[in-house]
Amino acid sequence: MPVIKTIKQSFFLKILFFTTLLSFLPFLLLGVYSLIQVEHLSEKIMHQQIEKTKASVLSQKFSYLEKEAQTVSLELVKVENNLKLIQKQAEMVFSKENHTFSHEPDIQLVKSTQGYLREPQHIIDRYDKANFFVSSRAADASAIMTDLKKAKELEPLLKQTIKNESILKAAYLFLSESAWLTYPAMNIDFEVATHKLPPNIRLQDYEFYHIADREHNPSRTVKWTKPFQDISHWNWVIAAAAPVYLPSGELRGVVGVHFPIEYIKMKLNDIRFEEPHAFAFIIDQQGHFIGGQRNNPDDAQKPELINAALNTKKGISEVKLDEGNIYLLSTPIKNNGWILSFAVPESDIIDPIVNDVKKETSMQILSFSQKLFLLLVLGTFVLVIFSYRFSKTITNPIKQLTVALKESASGHLGKKIPVQQEDEIGKLTETFNFMNSTIQQLINELHDRADQLEDKVLERTKELEDANSQLRETYKKLKNSEELRSELIIQISHDLKTPLTSIKGYHEVLMKYDQLSEEQKREFMKLISLRLNHMIQLVNDLFDITAMDINEMHFEKEWIPIEFLLEHSLDMVIANTPKQKITVHSQIEPDLPLLFVDGKKINRAFVNILENAIKYSRNKEEIMVDIKVFQQDQEIYIQFKDQGIGITEENIKNIFTPFFRDQRAKSEKTMGSGLGLTIAQKIIHAHHGDILVESQIDQGTTMTIRLPVMDEMETEGEEGAVIKGS
Q1: What is the DSSP string of 41-96?
Q2: What is the DSSP letter of 204?
Q3: Three-state secondary structure call for residue 388
């Protein structure tokens, strides 16, 4: 383009163009940087505000949740108190051997064609009275007529209970002969005709009866059932049941009341949220959906929400869903173990904040951009004027210098250019003259420098060879570290795979074979729990040894007697193996000095060694452990000697390697992670001590710990020491 060509041919225009451009760019970059910083600061403030608001909202919602749970719990407590009153009255009535009726009731029972018995009165208002039903399963109805008359005395109390507590749907007394008195009165013929009530019903087969028997309720308290649909068309209810015992200890029957699920749903519908998409729901202990403000599968009945509520039980958890994160607040209802939960979408909390902050940020950026544009226009105008004036002061003297340089270029290197100015251009001319006079001198010096450079090249070559040698050594170390890391991952995967495979197998057996006995199921669950505990111990040990390897060990040292440490460690180990007979012989030298150690960590090392001694001696009827403690020079020696399977000579050097376990221990299926002795060694080494091992196959192993005896001068700089124990 003609304009670019003109600029290239004119030094004056180049100075003017590039000075203006270089001066303009900082303004532009400063403006862009300021806009980015404003945006970044806005994002930071927004995130801080979001975190504060989320914490505040969730805290308020959790308080609200606990209040609502307490309200539901109080309603259930009222029901329990009324039922306890009925239970107490029933036990009092049935406990009298020679009962005298104040007004002996005339009970007439009619036998139906299906064989059951009922009162013959035609029911006009079922809330006017209670009525009897005797299953056709009862062998001799006349044998229980006295008890039916006793039960009739409970009718006023049942009737009054329902009237006082309008939310209750029914109150009843069930006798063990599958007979009952229920209020309000039931249309028994209709229930039998519609196949809602089996004429030969056996009450012991139903949860509302058997949850109160001796097997399921040995404490004789009030128990709650799972939700079920009542046969009298009272829709879904839960039943509270309590046993009625005779003075002889015989279970005579069960009293109970029906509490409608619909009332719980009404309570949930009364809960109001400021967040538009928040909702509440209740599940039982098995994860069955009881009710909620939203009843479609896309909302409260999502498996992710139900599983999170079951796992959390009480507290706040974050559930990640495809449509966004939801904060789930859960708390149990103590009476029946139900879980009340609030689901609050994260977007309902943060969207208003994000919208407000973005709106305010946009306004501020627009205002700043307008001011920046005006500043750039004014700054550019000022820079153009300044650049023009500045370029003229340079280009005119340069033209004069150019003529002189052309003469020098023709070969007159020794000719000096006359200096006509005393400013920087004049100094440039003087410098040019000086340059011509020193060129020859520089040429001579270049030969000398070339020789020196050759020597330096040889010297640098040697340094590079040394550096390459160090790099090769570093590469070997890195390669070795990578091999150790790969080996560690393989070992961890192997140790986790074995219990996981066992757990999967036991779980498949439990899921596939329904005919397993309860004892077999408990045994499988015990084995699963054992494998899970082994995995948890492995992860905990791995976490501890990793923290030790990256120098995250923190010591809280204090002066502690060695007797105190040993006694505490023995108590812990013996408590963890109650089924094994363990005999410990201790020989502790008197008047030993106190140890300046971290008691918890030293205790961990002792426990790991003692557990190994017991673990690898379990094939014996009685486990013998000898402990000997004595001082030699400035060190305390603690020896642990067992009579276990022993360690081979070639394996002694490997027992402190992470995950190493003797092949014989694996063949005997002895549980362990292979990290116990590694952790113990690191703890002892961190206390400037050492562990020594002596062992013979089938004769036992002796572990000897050496710990230094420290005085007050040596402990300077440590944390403040205190004397613990006696």
Answers
A1: HHHHHHHHHHHHHHHHHHHHHHHHHHHHHHHHHHHHHHHHHHHHHHHHHHHHHHH-
A2: G
A3: helix
Q: Coil, strand or helix: which one is 134?
A: strand
CA distances from 521 to 189, 528, 534 (A): 43, 10, 20
Secondary structure (3-state) at 267: helix
d(CA 613, CA 702): 9
Residue 721's pLDDT band (boundaries 50, 70, 90)?
A: very low
Q: Could you tell me how many residues make up the chain? A: 726
DSSP H or E segment with residue 333: strand 324-333
Contacts of 594 (CB under 8 A, 6+ apart): 559, 560, 561, 723
Beta carbons of 284 and 226 less than 8 angstroms apart: yes
Burial of 60: CB neighbours in 10 Å, binned 0-12, 13-18, 19+: exposed
* Model confidence pLDDT, tens digit, residues 563-584: 998 998 888 888 777 677 888 8
pLDDT at 293: 79
End-to-end CA distance of the chain: 98
Strand, helix or coil for residue 376:
helix
Residue-wise pLDDT tens digits, 143-180: 788 888 889 889 999 999 998 888 888 999 999 889 99
Tokens of 611: 């557990």
